[in-house]
Amino acid sequence: MKLAQIALVSVAAATCCAGLRAYQRVADFGFGNDDAPNNVKAEFYWSRLAYTSNMQSFGGGYGGRGYWGRAAWSRDYPKADRQFLIAMHRLTRIDGRPTEQVVTLNSDEIFNYPWIYAVQVQRWSFTDEEAKRLRDYLAKGGFLMVDDFHGTEDWENFMNGMRQVLPDRPVEDLQSGDEIFHTLYDIDDKMQIPGEHYTWSGRTYEKDGYQPKWRAIRDDKGRIVVAICHNMHLGDAWEWADDPNYPEPFASMAFRVGLDYILYGMTH
Predict the structure, then answer these.
(1) Phi, psi (5° rounding) for residue 149?
(2) What is the Cα–Cα distance from 76 to 121, expressed in whole angstroms?
């Protein structure tokens, strides 16, 4: 009996270690010497931003807890990222690395990856050094897409961080004719893209975020450097696209918008 218990514990420990190792490899920032998918060089890298949290109730640092005990920046990670990459490889000829990765503002490593995605941005906070690095990143051609924050209070908290990064840049509402909606797909009619909660609540909104806000911040040359999806949750639409209970029109719109944003970021 004791031997059986020891064997069971050993298998469980090995499984946990394997899972942790898999997560760490996905989050690898650089290139190794092997042929693993996360070490493949490509022209595009799906990069998710890990940030420190300004919400004390969720803890501080990158380990600050959010939904289900996970850091807020990692909501829908990694399934949403992987589902999107599958769609990108099927629908475009972009030479993209097949796995996602995590980037931070702790070092200049972020400058190697010109397109980043961030969620739950009402919870982010920056040191002066981090804010400057993100500002320099955007000025040098980087592109940031933010998603999954809802309502008035979330907007103010998000802007507290953005004012550290781009204090003098205005936020504008994007129009259907803006180029960013016509890089791969022509998206003239847009809808509010809800999270998975729609499948049981029938609501497309969260908190007091009743209307979708497609917004952006531009640089001095008019290039969009921050694409803002407020009162929406595109990441959930990607994550739950394979669930028959999640409506296909929402998922399809989310994929089209994401692909347009990537093509815009890569060509501007």
Answers:
(1) -150, 150
(2) 14
**102, 110, 103: which is closest to 139 by C-alpha?**
110
Q: Which residue has the tokens 């599958």?
A: 86
Give DSSP secondary structure letters for 140-189.
TT-EEEEE-B-HHHHHHHHHHHHHHH-TTPPEEEPPTTSGGGSSSS---S
List, in order, residues 6 or more apart from 180 with CB less than 8 Å away. Answer: 174, 216, 224, 227, 260, 261, 264
Residue 118 has phi, psi (to 5 degrees) of -140, 140
Query: What is the end-to-end Cα distance of the chain in Å, rounded?
Result: 65
C-alpha span between 21 and 76 (Å, rounded) = 19
Q: Is the pLDDT of residue 114 over 60?
A: yes
What pLDDT was estimated at residue 254? 98
Token pair listed for 101: 């990765």
* Longest CA pairwise span in the chain (Å): 72
Amino acid at 59: G
Q: Determine the Cα–Cα distance for residues 29 and 111; give it in Å rounded to an integer.
A: 11
C-beta separation of 206 from 215 below 8 A: no
Q: Using one digit for the tens of pLDDT, what is the confidence trace for 202-249?
A: 999 999 999 999 999 999 999 999 999 999 999 999 999 999 999 999
Per-residue pLDDT reduced to its tens digit, 195-209: 999 999 999 999 999
CATH number assigned to the domain covering 43-267 = 3.40.50.12140
